[in-house]
């Protein structure tokens, strides 16, 4: 009994001594840097989870494709917010839900010539997509081709800038999220409207972890996220 107790205490001590690594992208208002610190709606959730778990952690912002690869290939690395898709299902451990996004094709309200009633219509226009994002995969699966049907950028704010500069006509995003981002960036958010809602792209985004992450850490994060989100 003494040996078991000692072994258990050593495990707990070792786990709490580990500094966890969390990766995410620059996508205000969900995640962004403010006064030298990473803030935003989803980051506040993650910080509450870590506080409840009493686990030290480093949160880093990267272009989405790089953040994704770090979590895909690095043990004990957590990533948020990650859309749970069939393609990703077996490559990560899914800690829990943190947010729901309702995606649509978004355009500027004065662009009356941009008319989208079905996916095929989009191929007539200049569109953008974020590299490695679930919407990137969605377009590729539906026959869209890079540089022919869309341009690829590294982060969501770049798509917003391109839209207001009228260098692209539309892209897929949660409209409410984009309006908040536009306000933070000093744009007139009232110019943003939905050109076409995409019911099949109603996504729940997750906190997830590398597939080889220690199970003790996984259990601790699941318990704390559940406590923060008040799940049953």
UniProtKB/TrEMBL annotation:
It comes from the Bacteria. PANTHER family: PERIPLASMIC SUBSTRATE BINDING PROTEIN FAMILY 3, SOLUTE-BINDING PROTEIN FAMILY 3_N-TERMINAL DOMAIN-CONTAINING PROTEIN. This is Amino acid ABC transporter substrate-binding protein, PAAT family. It comes from Pseudoalteromonas denitrificans DSM 6059.
């Amino acid at each position: 009994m003494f040996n078991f107790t000692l072994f258990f205490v050593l495990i707990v001590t070792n786990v709490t001594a580990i500094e966890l690594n969390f990766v995410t992208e620059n996508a205000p208002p969900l995640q962004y840097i403010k006064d030298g610190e990473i803030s935003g709606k989803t980051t506040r959730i993650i910080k509450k989870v870590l506080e409840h778990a009493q686990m030290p952690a480093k949160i880093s912002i990267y272009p989405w494709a790089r953040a994704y690869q770090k979590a895909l290939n690095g043990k004990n690395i957590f990533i948020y917010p990650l859309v749970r898709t069939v393609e990703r299902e077996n490559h990560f451990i899914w800690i829990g839900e943190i947010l729901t996004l309702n995606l649509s094709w978004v355009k500027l309200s004065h662009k009356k010539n941009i008319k989208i009633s079905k996916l095929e219509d989009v191929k007539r226009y200049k569109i953008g997509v974020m590299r490695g994002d679930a919407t990137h995969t969605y377009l590729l699966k539906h026959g869209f081709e890079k540089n022919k049907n869309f341009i690829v950028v590294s982060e969501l704010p770049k798509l917003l800038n391109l839209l207001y500069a009228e260098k692209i006509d539309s892209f897929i995003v949660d409209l409410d999220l984009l309006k908040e981002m536009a306000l933070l960036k000093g744009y007139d958010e009232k110019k943003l409207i939905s050109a076409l809602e995409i019911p099949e792209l109603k996504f729940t985004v997750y906190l997830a972890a590398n597939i080889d992450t220690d199970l003790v850490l996984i259990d601790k994060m699941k318990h704390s996220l559940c406590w923060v989100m008040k799940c049953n």
